[in-house]
Amino acid sequence: MTKQNYRYKRVIGAWTMLFSAVSAIIGSGWLFSSYYSSQMAGPAAVISWVIASILIVFIALPFAEISSLLPLPGGSSHLPNITHGILVSVVFSWISWLTLAVLPAIEVQAVLQYASYFFPWLSSNPNDISTSLSLPGYGVALGLLFAFSIANIYSLRLVMRFNNAIAIWKIIIPVLAGLTLIILSFHAENFHQTAGFMPAGWQGVFGAIATGGIIFAFNGFKNVVELAGEAKNPNTTIPFALIGSILVCLAIYLLLQVAFIGAVPQAALAHGWALISFAKASSPLVTLLAMTGSVFILGVLYVDTLVAPLGAGLMYMTTSSRTLQAMSRNGQMPQVLMKVNSSGVPVTAILLNFALGFVFFFPFPGWKLMVDFISSLMAFSYVLGPVCLLALRYQMSEQKRPFKLPFGKLWSFWALYICTMVGYWTGWHVIFKLVFFIAFAVVFYLVFRFFSKEAQKVPLDIKSSLWMFIYFGGLTIVSYLGSFGGGTGQLKFGSDFIVLAILTVVSLCVATKYRVSDEEVKERAAAILGDG
Questions:
Q1: Rounded CA gap, 330 and 527, in Å?
Q2: Which residues contact 427 (CB under 8 A, 6 or more apart)?
Q3: Using CB atoms within 10 A of its CB, is residue 38 exposed (0-12), middle (13-18) or buried (19+)?
Q4: What is the pLDDT along the chain (532 residues), one digit of tens a residue?
Q5: CA torsion sign, 140 to 142 to 143 to 144?
Q6: N or C: at which end does the chain have fewer Cβ atoms within 10 angstroms?
Q7: Is the separation of the CB atoms in 351 and 149 below 8 Å?
Q8: What is the 3-state secondary structure (H, E, C) of 433-488?
Q9: Could you give the CA distance from residue 409 to residue 276 in angstroms, rounded to a whole number?
Q10: Which residues does 79 contact at the CB level (< 8 Å), separation at least 6?
């Protein structure tokens, strides 16, 4: 592997990093999560948000330590390759790539669902929030995704400027929307009538975290992780920016959630929270704001539903193409995806992501079905944090860490357990698709390796990947027997939590015991980071 110098200057201050993360976190999730989490948990959705924010902190901090130790570009591909070898890297690179590649499609879906309030021809049924796009709607989606691709190919600098320009806008508008609903259309009785505060019990609270769009809404926290290697005073800047951005966004999301619950008309709750029903439900916040008669806020919100998701979609298109390029550089994909044009842009990778993003509309019609699947991918992409954290504590024990977590073993267990639970809560109907996807990724790589002499030079590190097969195999069985998302229900609620805790301990122990040798890790890290 060619040595490259990826050492960064530590120039990013705490407040800059915090607001960068806040901007990254607030995407299309705020437009739909209040509706879906209310549908699943009722008024207790406010508890779901608080729990999710705590879980995200546990998941994020291991990444912060690793990123400050090894500031790797395309870290989702390089990191597992360093600590556990090529097979683990292949699986988690594919998970990260697919997540990033289809996020632009999710943002486009959000834009078009909200646009269908005024342009019903975009949707096959504007009154149904789970409906698919119409034929003209698919045409518009294709055009928007193509525009993302062209913008990334010809003007990356413009993309970055556009994203920076809308950062403050993305924060102000959700707050205005929430306050408007509370001031003009708040019914406190919604919190205790209609089957009480927690109509679906704790199962509904946990389910809302995974498939109500809540975990998806917090995904942007990884912006801090990616910039950890460039942080001034990382011991204080990283936890400040990470925890601070999550708390700021939690406050915004709680405001929106409380406002939404209080603004739902009593007639819409005639059949309970699980069957919330009102006209033009495909754009829930716009519909509720329209009922208040606040034309100005409605207009501003409508503009925001177009601007904010499109800005996020542009950035995701940029990031996903770089991830695919890194996979090609690591010998996991054909080398044609590594090629760049005269401006240094990976055109082939961008066009492949464009095609994948558009195809994603068809098996997952509607924002929620897309988010259900992506939330499971996100949860499992986070598995790398605790697993690699613990391995690196042995593999690079003498290396000074700019930011170091206390109680590394205990933190790794809780972080991995949380990732496992969040993934499990998405349900069997999502997990079995994920397992199929992982199997496809492994088979694709093995076939590619068979025909690529360059790929054959890299050892498979089968022993180091053993933990991964134990982990996903065990999770698949528990998900099938469990009670979430179409499981058989043979493993009762509560017992499944205990079984998954045992699976977490076993997987973490095996991953640590059969890690790549300390000497090999140092060689691999040096080859990527250079001598700096």
A1: 12
A2: 207, 210, 211, 372, 479, 484, 485, 486, 487
A3: buried
A4: 444 444 555 667 788 778 777 877 887 888 889 999 999 999 999 999 999 999 998 998 898 888 778 776 556 667 888 899 889 989 998 888 888 888 888 888 888 888 887 788 888 876 666 677 889 999 999 998 888 788 766 655 555 565 556 667 778 889 999 999 999 989 999 888 777 899 889 989 998 998 888 998 888 777 666 666 667 777 778 788 888 889 999 999 999 999 999 999 888 888 889 888 776 667 788 888 888 877 778 888 777 777 767 666 666 776 777 778 778 877 788 888 877 777 667 788 888 888 988 888 888 888 888 888 888 888 888 999 999 999 999 999 888 888 889 899 999 999 999 999 989 988 898 899 889 989 999 999 999 898 888 888 888 889 999 999 999 999 999 999 998 888 898 999 889 999 999 999 999 999 999 999 988 888 888 776 664 4
A5: positive
A6: C
A7: yes
A8: HHHHHHHHHHHHHHHHHHHCHHHHCCCCCCHHHHHHHHHHHHHHHHHHHCCCCCCC
A9: 44
A10: 66, 70, 72, 384, 388
Delineate the domains of the chain, giving CATH numbers in brackets. Answer: 16-403+410-529 (1.20.1740.10)
Q: Side chain identity at 72, as an amino acid letter?
A: L
Residue with tokens 């549908």: 39
The one-letter amino acid code at 463 reads K
pLDDT given for residue 256 in this prediction:
95
Cα distance between residue 390 and residue 399, in whole Å: 14
Q: Measured between alpha carbons, how far is 173 from 302 in angstroms, rounded to an integer?
A: 10
Our CA dihedral for 357, 363, 368, 371, rounded to 10 degrees, sits at -50
Rounded Cα distance between 518 and 395, Å, is 4
Separation between Cα atoms, residue 82 and residue 281, nearest integer Å: 47
Q: Is 123 helix (H, G, I), strand (E, B) or coil?
A: strand
DSSP state for residue 200 in the 8-state scheme = T
Question: In this structure, are residues 256 and 170 in contact, taking their beta carbons and an 8 Å threshold?
Answer: no
DSSP 22-81: HHHH-STHHHHHHHHHHHHHGGGHHHHHHHHHHHHHHHHHHHHHHHHHS--TTHHHHHHH
Of 136, 96, 99, 101, nearest to 116 by C-alpha is: 136
Q: Phi and psi at residue 133, in whole multiples of 5°?
A: -70, 155
Residues 305, 289: contact at Cβ < 8 Å?
Answer: no
Q: Which residues are 123's β-sheet partners?
A: 133
Enumerate the H helices of 122-166 as residue ranges: 135-154, 156-165
Which pair of tokens denotes residue 298? Answer: 């409605």
In the DSSP assignment, the letter for residue 485 is: T
Place of tokens 């992506």: 374
Instruction: Specify the residue for token string 């395309």.
Output: 74
> Contact at 8 Å (CB) between 107 and 265?
no
Tokens describing residue 190? 């919604």
Q: How far apart are CA 329 and CA 74, in angstroms?
A: 10
